[in-house]
Amino acid sequence: MPQQATTISDVAQALGMSKTTVSRAISGKGRVSEETRQKVQEYIQQHNYRPNAVARGLAQSKTYNIALVISSQFSNFDLPFVRKSMTAVCEAASQTEYEVLLTIADRRSSTPLRRLLDKGKVDGALLTSAVEEDPVTDLLRSREVPFVVMGHLTDKSILQVDNDQVSGCRELTALLLKMGRRRIALLGGTQRYTVNTSRLRGFEEAHAQEGVPVQKELVYMDLESVPSQLAAVEDALTKEPDCLLCMDDSLSLTVLKYLKGRGIRVPQDIQLASMYDSEALEESDPSITAVQFDADKLARTAYQMLLDTINGKSVKNCLELGYQLVIRRSTL
Length: 332
Fold this sequence. Notes:
Blueprint: H1 8-15, H2 19-27, H3 34-46, H4 53-60, E1 65-70, H5 80-94, E2 99-104, H6 111-118, E3 124-127, H7 135-142, E4 147-150, E5 160-163, H8 165-178, E6 184-187, H9 194-210, E7 219-220, H10 226-237, E8 243-246, H11 249-261, E9 271-274, H12 279-283, E10 289-292, H13 295-310, E11 318-321, E12 324-326
Parallel strand pairs: 1-2, 1-3, 3-4, 4-5, 5-11, 6-7, 6-8, 8-9, 9-10
Antiparallel strand pairs: 10-12
């Protein structure tokens, strides 16, 4: 049978002290003689005493819970970034005795998060998407709850960590231009999320850098449904682009499937690339060129930043992580 952990009651009974005295000797709070404190400390070190997390939380005014906030738009947990972020945060939390409470919120409804805050259920929050003028960040600020955003915001007083989206997407676009692509159709999501505006900026900067005008009639943003995405691809094809550049992996796979259905070969008839990589793009036929960002490292870094903030440590407000460009068959 596994050995049971020693409790305060066990310590008190063994030493002939009250539980209050033992508790004070362990916490260092309250009036206890140095001799008593030393006796208790020696005993608990010898007998595998570990303080109960709930009791410790009450004593320190902590819940040992954090909220992981996912936008309702990205509540499909099959999305690689969301899945990897959730896994990384949960693994990191398990090593620090914190629990993760998953909640879904956005600018239309943050009721679940508000309930957690009303009931004092969390010590802090991690936001998996960055939105300018976000009611969720306003709510957390008004309650003075520590939080970290995974993404880029213009308000640098907000704790945030992101990959260098602009540079990564600029380098990918510049590479395509250097390979002779001159009519690149850009397909992207809503500009409410700063990740999409950052990727658009990288796309535009690459064209300026290479001295090639952006074909504005080939820029399609705010594609939030599969029908709108397919309609954009169909319209773009009538304008004879030489490359389709998608802002994320899911959209890239949707486009690839559509092209195959139309009998359009990649890369022989048209090239295809993505501003976000995943295992699915590596395994697709053909494999798709993409910018690779480390979602696991991003989430773990954000979690550590939040934990340090909760514990009163000084942290840098804004952190930026790197990227890697992966060239595959879809552009060769």
